[in-house]
Protein 1
Amino acid sequence: MALRAAILRHIRVPVQTAALDRSRSQAWSLCNSVRSMSSHDDHLEKEEVTERVLDVVKSFPKVDPSKVTPDVHFQKDLGLDSLDTVEIVMALEEEFKLEIPDLEADKIVSCPLAIEYIANHPMAG
Amino acid sequence: MSFSYIARRAAQKERVRILYRRALKDTLNWAVHRHLFYQDASDLREKFEANRHVEDLDTIDRMIADAEATYNNFRHPDPYIVPWAPGGSKFTRNPTPPAGIEIIYNYGREDND
């Protein structure tokens, strides 16, 4: 049982509906671009998210800033360990004023994953 | 090096990561100022690093259980929660109405007094 849980926890299934959702949301964006009653409609652009994520990673003390690119893996490319990854994810949470559930935060192990998660998060600010 | 060993090891690593994450957040909750947090976080990290090279699986399980008990014992009673998250100050609250809309409290009785 524990084995099964451990395996299931490490299997990832790619989500195919993302592209579909995006085209639909663009169709809607004409009438939805200003939501006057919404308190959080300033959605972040992906470029801005990328830039801020890289800034956070670069300012981590154990990281060599020259090695940081948008597609680095924290442990494989930057030579960090798993606890450093936890610290970086927490720094990202503070940067974007997010509250990431523990199990999801545990899956964020590289820059592309972090950028994708934050860019798709409706509350990232 | 059986498969069950690897699976158990992976489960332990995940438990430690999540425990470290929760403990680190709690450290920030307890720290009154940011500069106090840095020292506390560094101490916390040292506590984890001290047992980095423990190999025996049962010992590791016991240590994780002990650490989780300690964490639960010293949890902050009123942790910081991001405003929109469940338990936060803005959770399910209505946004402010747009400018130009005002509430007339004595509607229909404006001329009475």
Protein 2
Amino acid sequence: MHLRIGHLYPEHLNLYGDRGNVIALAKRAEWRSIGVMVESIGLNEEVDLSQYDLLFIGGGQDRDQTLIAKDLKLVKGNSLLDAADGGVPLLAVCGGYQLLGKYYRLSTGEEVEGLGLLDISTEAGAKRLIGNIVLETELTGEKQTVVGFENHSGRTFLGSEVKPLGKVLSGSGNNGEDGFEGSVQGNIIGTYIHGSLLPKNPKITDWLLTRALERKFGQVQLQELNDNLEESAHQVMVKRSLS
Amino acid sequence: MRFIAVLIGKALIFLVRLTGRGGSNWPGKVVRKLFPGILPYLSLKVEKNILVTGTNGKTTTNKAIYSMLTQAGFNAMYNNTGANLITGITTAYVEKYGQKNEFATLEVDEANMVMAVREIQPQVVLVTNFFRDQLDRYGELGKTVQLVKEGLSLLPEGSTIVLNADDPLTAQLGMQEIDKLRVVFYGLQSNVLRNTAFADVSDARHCLQCGESYVYEKNFYAHLGHYHCSCGFRRPEPTVFVSRLEDRGSSGFLAEITSPQGIFTVDIPLPGVYNLYNLLAAIAVALTVDVPLAGIKEAVRGTGAAFGRMERLLLGTQDGITKETLISLVKNPAGFNAVMETLLEEIVEDQLLIVVNDLDADGRDISWFWDVDFETLAQKASNEIVVSGLRAQDMAVRLKYAGIPEERLVVVPEIEKALDISLEKAKSRLYILPSYTAMLKLQDVLRKRGQVQGYWKTEKKRMRSA
């Protein structure tokens, strides 16, 4: 078995250690003897994204994000829409999450059009929402916590076609108002959570890997791994945030 | 009123010292409340004020400038507790009031630059570099650069800004229209060092002017080097630069400096390319304010590490067996990579202890662990690694995913216990890489134990905790 992982714009969207997500996906596949190839996909590169088995896009600084918005629209837009239609699992964090939505309204009132892959829209907020965050999610079918760190000024609001990734137990989440964080639509997960997200939340990593393998090879059962270390790092933050 | 405010401030500082408690910020805070114009008043009493800002190397560089000044016979003051917020800086001036100083040299937190420049109106500002650091405090790197830029725009006419030519983010500060200021660039000549072996997830690999990736003819470390962009932006030619270099490993460097004041050689007793930059920056500032070469050379030779910056100590285990211990602060990916690059060959030979907290002063977001090139360490290391601190488990996860087998990771969150376990495990040398508050905690433990038996290599007095 073999997976091809595409890391979108790693040169530009690399602000908060989000590459840990790609490292986690690759390692947890390798530990199960699933071959992995990680490819960087940069600005202005025209590629067929539906040829990938898993895609990741992170967050960046404002300046870089404007560059990426343009590239997504003019260069990779159709290809990414095709990939999503074909069910390629995609994880988008922070800036990447916002870019997949319908639009981002700047503080000046100007609207930057997004890709519209996720039924969400984002508005600039006055105060940055910064801190540790804990969610409760049912992504994998059973209730579990998600831990990480959020740092965003955008306020994201969900439309009717997406479900939130989870309920906020501690922290701010999508917009600091409705008590939810992230979005799930088909095989796409969008979230504000850094940390990186995946290493300390191996269940989400495995959910993404499972979606990717199923799409390629049909029904699969992932081999269990020893997650004691990940679990203890996870629990430290659950305890600290909820006590 | 001013005089009373200073007296109250001095009394508060005395009380703080008396109780042995840390905290050099709040006397300044109280005095500023009582008399908001106190800092402009006090700094005016000093003939020349120098500010040192940037992400990495402020403390070491500022201390080096201070020793160059005093070595040359000037009366000078500096904020020696590393308290670099406007309140701590105020405390420093209050404390030194009455001393008739010719120079004050102060490290300033980037976010406090606007206030510091406005109130102190310095003659010289040094900007060392910009790296990703404590994003949860400043939002993002671009914002930090912006804050410093704003500070520089408030400088009085005729001031000098001293900038690192090899860091594009810093260099660009001196390349716009600033005709009322003098700009001095410093850097390393291309052939003095090889390219870095450490992968950089960079902060600044893209041109601020046009967004294209820089082309590096030479990459010394992180995003520092000789770079240019297709839009025409390129590294400015420095006037103070290292023109020849002998790398003496963990003993430091012998560097030939070329400057308008002449070509001279300095003996730098600190290892690491970043320390080379720190000393070079200090030399560029000293030359700017006409410190004689003899004073500069003497001061460089006597440079000691600031506490926890490549500091070497002799520590005993509980059975009284002495182990050489090296402590080096790590606070962001570029700094972490640089320390590992300098020490890699040594670290993999003996015991490594990494201690990471996530308190405010460390930065609460630990996502940056994932931007450190631990993969290079994992390829070489074969020993156990001890991890400690509030985020010990997170560091263990990071190292596991870098390729270090779980059975070689020893997780001991409690810092004092981790220190003892690591000392036991060390064959003859222990390398401790702590985050900021973890470093203070270690310092505390060592002081309480009175366990410091002596120093090797560098001689210096340990600083009080900030």
